[in-house]
Amino acid sequence: MSDSSLITQLTDAFRCLPGVGPKTAQRMVLHLLERDRDGGRRLASKLALAMEAVGNCESCRNLTEATVCEICCDPRREARTLCVVETPADVLAIEHSGSYRGYYFVLMGCLSPIDGIGPAEIGIDALLKRCQKSIEEVILAVGSTIEGEATAHYISEVVKPLGVQVSRIAHGIPLGGELEFVDGGTLSHALQGRKIL
Amino acid sequence: MPESVTHRAYILHARRYRDTSLLADIFTLEEGRYSVVIRGARGGKSGRQGLAQLFSPLLVSVFGRGELKTAGAIEAARAGYRLAGENLLIGMYVNELLYRVLGKYEKLPHLYTQYELLLEELGQGHFAPIQIRRFELSLLASLGYGITFDVDAESGEPIDANGQYHFIAEQGFQRTEGGINESFSGRHLISIASGEYGVACEPLLKHVVRKSLRPLLGGKPLNSRALFEGRAG
Ligand SMILES: [Zn+2]
Q1: Would an 8 Å CB–CB cutoff place A18 in contact with chain B?
Q2: What is the pLDDT of residues B101-115, one digit of tens each?
Q3: What are phi and psi of B56, to 5 degrees?
Q4: Rounded to a whole number, what is the distance in Å from the CA of A156 to chain B's nearest CA?
Q5: Among candidates B29, B98, B39, which has minimal Cα distance to B68?
Q6: Do A6-53 and A77-168 share a fold?
Q7: What is the pLDDT of residues A161-174, one digit of tens each?
Q8: Nearest CB partner across the interface for A146, out of B54, B85, B96
Q9: Terminal-to-terminal C-alpha distance of chain B
Q10: Residues of chain B with pLDDT under 50
């Protein structure tokens, strides 16, 4: 196999996937070539299609090939709440929990000035526009990293003047978790977010 | 095991690197700013992920000789400063500023101490524009762009309390007969020179600091400015 052979090129191409190093990439390539040419062709054609057709929902910015995504189009959802998340994976996680029936807004990241991610990049204008349509509560479901905290603060500052209530999901002890194994930061968050019984 | 040294450090910025590591820009007491790969800083097992946060005083054991060093271990020097609300955005601004203007391996122990003091103020929830200006002034001074507030840069005369002055970046204050926008009273300059930063000096300091930082930023404005634009406060 020369360095520029298709096999080498394909192996290199697979390495753009997270968690895929040279060994894994090679195993994937050999698997497709030796045992699953049909699977490989299907992968190639779907990849090409998706890379061209999938964009962002006009309303919530989640990934979709439609102008407006399925969730945003669903009239049975709770129209007054908007859950703000960082990534499309967060939408899936909350959907799978089955505990939320409102709409979403996907920031596609969180504020990080050094990386050039500011209010424009996380879609603040689109969020403010979205809030003006029947939304009464914005639930901030962003991460508890420093960048997540900063993003939550910024959003609450720009959304509150619209007369929309802003809440933040609780951070704390995992279900079934034992206190002694929880780190100090999480514990102090959990204490601050305590509830009167 | 290669030999390692331990530095006191703050993370200015970090991004994901490979699967479980972070590529961090750190500001250290001992060696100034440099880049380091922090292994195992992400992903559950090592328990290091909660540590590698902005605004947390760290002890970082680094090894490697090249441009990019590796952190073998990181430890919390003590509890991190808990910046909240607006002060969190200010902290991000300060980090971006340091990230943009500090050269690599420039030893700036005094500035490190000033940074720590500022984080302490911000962590206590004080909203302190004057503290930020003070920090920016000591940043400029550390980099050799210190501003003289009590001498007329043109004539070499002491500043006259009754005079009006305007500011030229990299030169200093010069007397003006008025008619120029952005002129400042000599009285305020003298009070700043003596370490008295009253509220009345805020616009002056802001103007002077911005103008002085501009050449250091190479014409590209700080991205964090966008966090404060178009909002009250
Ligand atoms: Zn949508």
Answers
A1: yes
A2: 999 999 999 999 999
A3: -110, 125
A4: 10
A5: B39
A6: no
A7: 999 999 999 888 88
A8: B54
A9: 52
A10: 45-46, 233
Candidate from A18, A114, A185 with C-beta closest to B95:
A114
User: CB contact, 8 Å: A192 with chain B?
Assistant: no
Enumerate residues with CB within 5 Å of ligand 1 (an ion): A 57, 59-60, 62, 69, 72
Q: Say if residues A161 and B230 touch (Cβ distance below 8 Å).
A: no
Q: Extract the tokens encoding A170.
A: 């609780």
Residues of A in contact with B223 (CB under 8 A): 113-114, 116-118
CB of A149 within 8 Å of a chain B CB? The answer is yes
Distance in Å, alpha carbon of A112 to nearest chain B alpha carbon? 8
Give B14 to chain A, closest Cα distance, Å.
Answer: 9
Residue A64: strand pairing partners = A55
Is A17 near chain B, with CB under 8 Å?
A: no
A56 closest CA partner among A66, A45, A48, A70: A66
Q: Which fold has domain A6-53?
A: Helicase, Ruva Protein; domain 3 (1.10.8)
pLDDT for res B76: 87
- Using alpha carbons, list the distances in angstroms from residue A42 to A32, A36, B99: 11, 10, 45
Tens of pLDDT, residue by residue over A88-110, are 999 999 999 999 999 999 999 99
Gap from A178 CA to chain B (nearest CA, Å) = 16
Amino acid identity for residue A92 in this structure: L
Helix (H) / strand (E) containing B35: strand B32-38
Q: How many CB atoms lie within 10 A of CB B156?
A: 7
Which residues of chain B neighbour A111 with C-beta distances below 8 Å?
Answer: 92, 227
Measured CA to CA, the distance from residue A44 to residue B164 in angstroms comes to 71
Kindly list the domain boundaries of chain A, sorted by start residue: 6-53, 77-168
List phi, psi (to 5°) of B47. 75, 10
Q: Which CATH architecture has domain A77-168?
A: 3-Layer(aba) Sandwich (3.40)
- Whole-number Cα distances in Å, A40 to A66, B69, B160: 26, 40, 80
Assigned token pair, B90: 């200010």
**B204 phi-psi bin (left φ>0, alpha ψ -120 to 50, beta other):** alpha
